[in-house]
Amino acid sequence: MSERLPIAVLVSGTGTNLQALLDTVHGRDAQIVAVASSLAGVPALARAEQRGVPTAVFARSAYPDRGARDQALADWLAERGTQLVVLAGYMELLGAPFLDRFPGAVINVHPSLLPSFTGMRAVEQALEYGVKVFGVTVHYVDAGVDSGAVILQGAVELLGAREPGEVLAALRPLEHELLPRAVSLFAAGALSVDPENPRRIAIRAEDARTAGV
Length: 213
Hints:
Layout: E1 5-11, H1 16-23, E2 30-37, H2 43-50, E3 55-57, H3 66-79, E4 84-87, H4 96-101, E5 106-110, H5 122-129, E6 133-140, E7 150-157, H6 164-187, E8 191-194, E9 197-203, H7 205-211
Parallel strand pairs: 1-2, 1-4, 2-3, 4-5
Antiparallel strand pairs: 5-6, 6-7, 8-9
């Protein structure tokens, strides 16, 4: 039996972060056992299918409410042995009952330095605010909006940025670096909650050095 951590990836679009996971941790530190999308026909599904990863679509319109969708999604992921759920450009909220099915095992990548600029349009918010440093956060998902404990962050200085596309292009390499690194740390059991501050995620020292944290 494989000792690799079985993970599921939730997507809604092109899937470049999924591709980063397929190219780095898949088959090494972890095994992607499922890819679920909120939308049919998106490129992310094709990326998974090309690697032989099972895929499914869970569109909100196919269920009476979000709770029913979340339950069906959680059931499908659990059937495949999922132990970590990774949100990689997933443009839907997940309710508390879903999170309770995977306690402390749902992470997300967000295009800002949280706690600044949560929710949708994070890059647009940052541009409107006039910031000069933009960033990426990988964090645990809780019942709030981008309010879970931070795992990893990275930043880039863009003094003259004006357009969201320009910022997103600069952030993409950071996303592709940080999300796989966070999955590897989780798979290694290197992440733990600081008992003195539940919002602080401690990284085991030897793993932090190896991961370049």
